[in-house]
Amino acid sequence: MAKKSMVERQKKRERLVAQYAAKRASLKEIANDEAKPMEERFKARLKLAQLPRNSSPTRLNNRCQLTGRPHAYYRKLKISRIMLRDLGNQGLLPGMVKSSW
Question: SUPFAM superfamilies, from UniProt (predicted)?
Answer without folding.
Answer: Glucocorticoid receptor-like (DNA-binding domain)
